[in-house]
Amino acid sequence: MRLLPRYAGPATTVTLSDLWLRSTCDDTGVNVDMARAPLTDDRIAEFLAELPGWQRVDDAIERTYKQAYHETLHLAMYVGAKAREIGHHPDIHITWQRIRFSVTTHDAGNRLTECDFELARWIDSIAEGHGATPLD
């Protein structure tokens, strides 16, 4: 990590992947309009092909993991922290030893955008780091 200037603000420590995501998926970047534009069905299919385990459910993508109940709560907190950082939030459903993430872009009329697929990648990474087992 290194210090990089924050868009219109003071210097902060971020990773390069954080900087890319911020530049495409939140209010600080130059590609926000493109990243939050609804995707066509063909583009959605292309993005889904790159994310094994994620399923399209109407105008959202979802994935479920298995983990001990208290660990699902920890996982939800870590995903929630990342979501807050990047300014894009999933719906999180917790039941006994299951956690399901549902992602759509509310600002785009509950349609799928590039930001949803980037958040799905973050969720996969965080879930793997927490030892959650995907239910695919």
Could you explain how this protein is built, in words?
The structure is a single chain. The protein has 136 residues and is α+β, with helices and mostly antiparallel strands. 42% of the residues lie in helices and 23% in strands. The protein has one domain: Transcriptional coactivator/pterin dehydratase (Gyrase A, domain 2, 2-Layer Sandwich), CATH 3.30.1360. Strands 3, 4, 5, 6 and 7 form a 5-stranded antiparallel β-sheet that branches. A two-stranded antiparallel ribbon has the order 1-2. Strand 5 (91-95) and strand 6 (98-103) form a beta hairpin. The radius of gyration is 15 Å and the shape is globular. It starts with a strand and ends with a strand.
Features:
single chain, 136 residues, alpha+beta, Gyrase A, domain 2, five-stranded antiparallel β-sheet, globular, disordered N terminus
Could you give the topology of this structure?
Layout: E1 2-5, E2 11-14, H1 16-25, H2 32-35, H3 41-49, E3 55-57, E4 60-66, H4 69-86, E5 91-95, E6 98-103, H5 114-129, E7 133-134
Antiparallel strand pairs: 1-2, 3-4, 4-6, 4-7, 5-6
Helix pairs in contact: 4-5
Assign the CATH topology.
Answer: Gyrase A, domain 2
Helix vs. strand class: alpha+beta
| SSE pattern | EEHHHEEHEEHE
Low-confidence stretches: 1-23
Largest β-sheet summary: 5 strands, antiparallel
Can you tell me the overall shape? globular
Proportion of residues in β-strands: 15-25%
CATH class: Alpha Beta
Instruction: Give the number of helices.
Output: 5
Organism: Embleya hyalina
Keywords: Lyase
EC number: 4.2.1.96
Family: Belongs to the pterin-4-alpha-carbinolamine dehydratase family.
